[in-house]
C-alpha cells in the first residue's frame, strides 16, 4: 500500500483510536421474513458444528457461540426451501466461519498451507481418496461437501465450486494482502468481493428453490453489476461494523475506513472515513435497486420465471445482512436495531 508521508499522523491517529461514532445505517429495501424453521436449523447446525470446533467445549463456550447466531445468517439470506435444505444452509454458515478462520493462518490447522489447500480441492472435486483420512482440520469439509454435492443440481454445484475456489485463491498468503496492494477504493472492493464469502452463498438460493440457472443468466453484464453492488454493500457494512474487533485483533488495515484514511488526502480523521463509508453504503443500495430493476424487468419480459424467483431472494441479502449484524454478538453489537452511537474501540 502506498501512502504519502503526510499521512503518518493519520496512521498514528488510527493506532491511537479510542472511539468513533457510527451513524445510523438505513436501508429502504424491505427485509424478508426469516426461514420459518430457523430455530430448528440453528439447533441442528450448532450440534453439527460444535464438535468440529472443539469436541470438549464447555456449556459456557457453547452459549457464547450460540449468541453469534451464525446459522441464522443463512436462514435470513435464504429464507425459502425445505427444512432439509435450510439445515444444509445453516451448516454452511458454520462451514464458512470455520474455513475463514483456518485460512487466516499461515499453516491452517497446523498443516502446510499448500497441503491443506490441495486436500480441500480434492474434497471439493470428489477426488480425495476415500481410504485416505483427511487432515483433522478438514473433517467438517469432508462431512458437509458430499452432502452439498448430492443436494445441488450439477450446474449449481459447479457454480458453488467455482465460487469456493475463487474465495480460497483470494486468501492465498503468497499474494500481497489488501493492505499492501490496494491503492484505490475500486481496487480494494475488487479484491474484497472475493474474500468476504458472500458469493459462495448465492448457489444455496438455487438449491433451495430447486432450480439451476444457466450461465447466460448469471454472466450477463447487468446481473454481474447487480451482484457486485450487493457484494459491495455487504462488505462495506461488514467492514465498518467489524472494525473495533479487527483493531483489537491488531488488524487495523482490514477495513475500507482505515484505507480511506490513509489513502485519501481529503480525509483527515477516522470519523471522516466512517462517515464516508456510511455514505458509500447508501450509494451501493441505490446501485442495487437500479440494477435489480433492470435485471428483473428483463426477466419478467422474457418469461424467465426461475430467474424472477431467484432475484426476489437475492435482493434480500442487502437488508437481511444488515439486520444480522445488529442481532449477532459476533462483532459486539447485538442491539437488535441500528447499532449506531458511540463505539468504544479499546
Search tags:
single chain, 346 residues, mainly alpha, Farnesyl Diphosphate Synthase, two-stranded antiparallel sheet
Task: Give structural notes.
This is Terpene synthase. Its EC number is 4.2.3.-. Belongs to the terpene synthase family. This protein has a single domain (1-29, 36-344), classed as Farnesyl Diphosphate Synthase (Orthogonal Bundle), CATH 1.10.600.10. Helix content is 63%, strand content 2%. The protein contains 17 helices and 2 strands. Helix 2 (38-53) packs parallel to helix 5 (83-103). It is globular and about 55 Å long.
Indicate the topology.
Elements: H1 8-15, E1 19-22, H2 38-53, H3 59-68, H4 70-77, H5 83-103, H6 113-125, H7 139-151, H8 154-170, H9 178-181, H10 185-195, H11 203-209, H12 215-218, H13 221-248, H14 256-263, H15 270-301, H16 305-314, H17 317-325, E2 341-344
Antiparallel strand pairs: 1-2
Helix pairs in contact: 2-4, 2-5, 4-5, 4-17, 5-7, 8-10, 8-11, 13-15, 13-17, 14-15, 15-16
Family: Belongs to the terpene synthase family.
GO molecular function: metal ion binding; terpene synthase activity
EC number: 4.2.3.-
Low-confidence stretches: none
Strand order of the largest sheet: 1-2
- In the CATH hierarchy, the third-tier topology is known as Farnesyl Diphosphate Synthase
- Mean pLDDT over all positions: 87
Q: What is the number of independent domains?
A: 1
**Large-scale geometry:** globular
Per DSSP E runs of 2 or more residues, the count of β-strands stands at 2
**Topology as a string of helices (H) and strands (E):** HEHHHHHHHHHHHHHHHHE
EC number: 4.2.3.-
Keywords: Lyase, Magnesium, Metal-binding
Enzyme class: lyase
Protein name: Terpene synthase
Amino acid at each position: 500500500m502506498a501512502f504519502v508521508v503526510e499521512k503518518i499522523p493519520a496512521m498514528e491517529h488510527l493506532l491511537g483510536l479510542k472511539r468513533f461514532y457510527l451513524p445510523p445505517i438505513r436501508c429502504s429495501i424491505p427485509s424478508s421474513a426469516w426461514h420459518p424453521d430457523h430455530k430448528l436449523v440453528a439447533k441442528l447446525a450448532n450440534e453439527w458444528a460444535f464438535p468440529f470446533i472443539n469436541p470438549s467445549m464447555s456449556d459456557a463456550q457453547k452459549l457464547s457461540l450460540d449468541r453469534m447466531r451464525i446459522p441464522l445468517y443463512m436462514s435470513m439470506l435464504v429464507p425459502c426451501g425445505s427444512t432439509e435444505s435450510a439445515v444444509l444452509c445453516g451448516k454452511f454458515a458454520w462451514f464458512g466461519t470455520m474455513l475463514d478462520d483456518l485460512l487466516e493462518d499461515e499453516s491452517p490447522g497446523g498443516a502446510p498451507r499448500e497441503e491443506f489447500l490441495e486436500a480441500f480441492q480434492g474434497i471439493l472435486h470428489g477426488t480425495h481418496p476415500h481410504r485416505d483420512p483427511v487432515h483433522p482440520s478438514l473433517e467438517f469439509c469432508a462431512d458437509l461437501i458430499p452432502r452439498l454435492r448430492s443436494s445441488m443440481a450439477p450446474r449449481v454445484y459447479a457454480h458453488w465450486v467455482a465460487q469456493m475456489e475463487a474465495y480460497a485463491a483470494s486468501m492465498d498468503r503468497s499474494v500481497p494482502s489488501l493492505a499492501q496492494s490496494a491503492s484505490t477504493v475500486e481496487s480494494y472492493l475488487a479484491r474484497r468481493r472475493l474474500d468476504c464469502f458472500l458469493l459462495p452463498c448465492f448457489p444455496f438460493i438455487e438449491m433451495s428453490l430447486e432450480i439451476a440457472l444457466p450461465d447466460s443468466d448469471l454472466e450477463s453484464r447487468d446481473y454481474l453489476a447487480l451482484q457486485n453492488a450487493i457484494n459491495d454493500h455487504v462488505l462495506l457494512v461488514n467492514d465498518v461494523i467489524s472494525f473495533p474487533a479487527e483493531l483489537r485483533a491488531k488488524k487495523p488495515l482490514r477495513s475500507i475506513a482505515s484505507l480511506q484514511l490513509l489513502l485519501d488526502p481529503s480525509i483527515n480523521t477516522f470519523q471522516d472515513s466512517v462517515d464516508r463509508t456510511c455514505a458509500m453504503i447508501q450509494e451501493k443500495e441505490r446501485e442495487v435497486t437500479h440494477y435489480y430493476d433492470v435485471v428483473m424487468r428483463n426477466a419478467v419480459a422474457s418469461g424467465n420465471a426461475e430467474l424472477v424467483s431467484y432475484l426476489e431472494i437475492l435482493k434480500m441479502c442487502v437488508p437481511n445482512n444488515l439486520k444480522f449484524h445488529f442481532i449477532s454478538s459476533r462483532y459486539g453489537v447485538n442491539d437488535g436495531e441500528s447499532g449506531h452511537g458511540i463505539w468504544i474501540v479499546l
